[in-house]
Amino acid sequence: MNVKEMMELMEAKELKEVKELKDLVLQQGSNLLGVQSSLLEIEKNMGKKDNKDELELKMIELEEKTLLLEKEVKNKQRDPEELRMIRQVILKIIEEKFADISRSTETKIQQIKNENSKEFASLKQIIQQKDELISSLQETIEKNYEEMLTLRQNINQANMKTNGIIQSIGMKLNEVDQDFGQKIQGLDQAMRKTDNKCKDLEDKIAKFDINGSDQLIKIEEFGKTLQNLIDEKAKEREEKKLQHLQLLSIQTDFNKKVGDLRNEFFNLHHDQVEKIKKVDVSNVAIKNLVDSIKVELKFLNSSTFKKGSFVNIDNEWKVTTKFPCCGTKCVNTESPYGTCKSRNGFIQLTTDGTIRYIKCAEGKVNKFPLITAANQFKRPVNCNVFSLFYFELKLKLEEEFTSDQKSLAFGLDNNSDTVKMWPLSSIIHYHMQNENIPQSFKLESFILSADDVVGCCLVYPPSRVENKMPYVFYTQNGKQICKAIVLEGNNNYYQPFIQVTGYAVETNFGQNLEAKPFSYDISKHLVAEEFYEFY
Q1: How many CB atoms are located within 10 Å of the residue 303 CB?
Q2: What is the DSSP string of 433-488?
Q3: Which of 251, 295, 415, 483 has the most CB atoms within 10 Å of its CB?
Q4: For the chain, how far is it from start to end, CA to CA, in angstroms?
Q5: Per-residue pLDDT tens digits for 278-335
Q6: Does domain 309-535 fall into CATH 2.60.120.920?
Q7: pLDDT per residue over 375-422, tens digit each?
């Protein structure tokens, strides 16, 4: 179909060298068929990690063939209008290859919106559940506080009751002491009276005339009376001793009861104190839990959580030998400042880190090298905020290159998954190792201009946030140019890379933002809420 169109175009021209032009078009048609067959082979083999290097080499070979073909056309000095029409046909073929992929993005975008709405609904439900938990904990605290007040009232009542019992026992002891004292005093008075009577009798005996019979009778009677008094006094002493023993028994019982009451009161008081301590500990634990939940909710709703934090890493570019300048690999990591000895077009690193591209000599090829960062972007461990890794590229077209001789791709790679942007084609490409078919989408409104600044940002979620995946987005001149791309594969680390032809590139890894700030204000980036869906 394409060859026929070109033949019709060529036949419409009435030029002198018709035969030579036909031969040239036929040669271009065969090359285009070779390009188409190579594209079909690439589509079949893309996604297989073992063929990844081979596919990229084929792409480079195709690009070299195209460049050589264009040079040949220019050497023939054909009509520019004819060359323009031929390029339009070639571009039409390329655009048809990506048309089907572009049409499928709208439905996938809608699916992403639906998934995001489910995530926001889930987050609202979690916050509502935590609010309900806080209310329940507050009710528990109030209930425990009421129980603590009741326990304290019971302790006060027990204290009052114990004090009343002790006072009652004390009053009874005072009464016993008073009664016992009165009885002792009565016995003492009776004994003193008896003693007085004995003294009187002794006085009478001394004065009594023992020779009279009447007196003898009186003496006998007096002896009996005296004996009775002595017996009575002995009886009173026994009673006094018995009362004293009873008083000691009462005192012992009282002391025992007081000791029992004190032990009972101490045990009751100890139990109540332990219960109060447990309630206090429970209240403290509940309060700490409530405070922790409040802090977590405040953190989830805070702008700091949504903004994240930029991770500053000291970095520089390293020239790999994956796509070398020539067979001798003369430009490499150990020697990045030289030029290709075979005079192929290749990059050159300057001492300030700028990437220059040295154009090839006549009859040679401009290579498409791979340059990687020295240090990787690694997932942070035990991090409480979103972590942002970012780098920017300031582009400048080399003077000796035309617009159709330049190429550019940059992004992130970890030897299994790759996400890259082709700014000149307005295409973002995402390839996971476990997927056979890589995914791509086209940025309809994106146009790369001279002296543009483009950037790539990798965002890792906090360690404690579940169901969140890292994602990537791209920027142009300080603005985000696409939705975020969720990284679902092996995502513990990524390595920045760039492939370039025809551009001088100045890189900013953010090592000194005060002296050299980013074009994109990374501090104002909010966590992405819209994502592309590939699968």
Answers
A1: 7
A2: TT-SS-EEEE-TT----TT-EEEEEEEEPPTT--S---EEEEEETTEE-S-EEE--
A3: 483
A4: 34
A5: 877 877 888 787 777 666 665 555 544 456 789 999 999 998 888 888 988 888 877 7
A6: yes
A7: 999 999 888 888 999 999 999 988 888 877 889 999 999 888 899 999
* Tokens linked to 392: 């920017």
Coil, strand or helix: which one is 260? helix
CA distance linking residue 108 with residue 175, whole number of Å: 101
Confidence of residue 460 (pLDDT cuts 50, 70, 90): very high
> CB burial class (10 A; 0-12, 13-18, 19+) of residue 474?
buried
The amino acid sitting at 188 is D
Please report, for the chain, the start and end positions of each structural domain, with discontinuous segments joined by +. 1-103, 129-301, 309-535
Q: Please, which residues bridge with residue 373 across strands?
A: 317
Hey, what's the torsion of the CAs at 262, 267, 271, 274, to 10 degrees? 90
What letter would DSSP give residue 345? B
Residue 195 tokens, joined: 């003693």
Q: Is the pLDDT of residue 346 over 70?
A: yes
465 phi, psi to nearest 5 deg: -90, 120
The gap from C-alpha 446 to its chain's centroid, in whole angstroms, comes to: 35
Question: What is the C-alpha radius of gyration for the chain, rounded to an integer number of angstroms?
Answer: 54
Bridge partners of 504, per DSSP, are 396
Count of residues in the chain = 535
| Interatomic CA distance for residues 474 and 458, integer angstroms | 9
d(CA 203, CA 214): 18
Cα–Cα nearest to 58, from 329, 347, 368, 364: 368
Structure tokens at 79: 């009509």
Can you say whether the dihedral through the CA atoms of 47, 36, 426, 405 is positive or negative? positive
CATH number of the domain located at residue range(s) 129-301 in this protein: 1.10.287
Q: Which stretches does DSSP call E strand in 317-417? A: 317-319, 346-349, 355-358, 370-373, 377-378, 387-397, 407-413
Quote the CA–CA distance of 473 and 457 in Å, as a whole number. 5
